[in-house]
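Before relying on records like the one below, remember that each one covers exactly one chain. Contacts with other chains, cofactors or solvent are not represented anywhere in the record.
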Amino acid sequence: MSILLGCIADDFTGATDIAGILARSQVPVTLHLGVPDQEAVIADAPFQIIALKCRTTPVDDAVTQACRALDWLQTQETRRYYWKYCSTFDSTAEGNIGPVAETLLQRINNSEKTWNGLPDTIQTIYCPSFPENGRSVYMGNLFVGEQLLHESPMRHHPLTPMSDSHLGRLLNTQTTSEVATLTLPIVRQGPDVIRERLIELANDGIKHVIVDAVDNNDLMHIVRGSEHLRLLTGGSALALHLPALFRVHGWLNNKLQIESAPPPEGGRIILSGSCSDMTRRQVAAAADKCSCLQLEPIKLARESQLDDAIRWLSQQNDSATLLVYATTTPDAVVTAQKELGKEAAGSIVEQAMATLAQLAFDQGRRQFIVAGGETSAAVANALGQKRLAVGREITPGVPWTTGRRKGYEFSLALKSGNFGDEEFFSTAFDVLNSIE
């Protein structure tokens, strides 16, 4: 069985984000954590997602990881490709969004000369809009709700502080060729006009095109107007309309259906490493309902806080919902980074969360929520997961997934820092335990 859509995601929460969006179609989705082995079986899932950990790595490393993922997808006769990044376009001036997209585009063109029987266009679009989560692009500017990106809490992000809202300026620093914008008045004229304009730009040598979108109708027009392109790039919301397009072409087997697994028996734990504004509010809302422990990078590095945390975890009641968090204010993050170094401050928290996740599992906990991309990767790897089955969506962009460890199934939700509302943690467990 060939893959209809092969997606390469730049972090683990981003991968579950697009997996959940695609799973709305009730078509099976497989989520790989890391590049699969060559002999990996794709089973009957036409949508295959590969989660990388390359959002904030050096550019060369990000490109190398993405190329390895592309190589595997190409061995599986993949029809279309998707480079998935955050809907807030998280990156630095150097990358990694543009360099990866540029490399993937060139490699696909070099190795696969035709698409759908026609010569491939050496061009891709950039569409991070996610209207359900308040992300929109207008005249090339990215908005978070009613705020421009650089005026939102993203300006304080500890790893990718976003100081410019204009995607054209951001992308121009990351690519070797010119960037154009396809604005909302063109998008609103429909798929045919979008396609015509993209082809005009391609004939002028424009390979990178940012596309405005403020609602799901815009995204639907963009998907149909760009179906001649082999590679799409964006947040997850653009992918929402791809299954319907594939059905129009007769590519989807309608007999394939997702079967949601009932929740596993076992305790609950939340592991939160994100310091986003929304996660801080979610932690505060959950604090009165959980047994809580706060981790601090400086204490983890200078004192025996991890030993204390292990003791604390071992003493908790099996029926209690546990909340272990390093979530804190931007000022506290800066203080820790100054004392320990930016990379070390994050790494020590990730290692602690990974250790506590393993211990929690060994103690019988089977329902895990993890907040933050870096923390999600650390926990998923610590639990030994290479592939997850995607189940019911909790909130736009965050599904429950099912893994298996030491002969036991467990449920895992990987949440991007800014996703969900203040009651996300309690809502997530309610959704999971409503599955029959």
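The first helix runs from residue 12 to 23.
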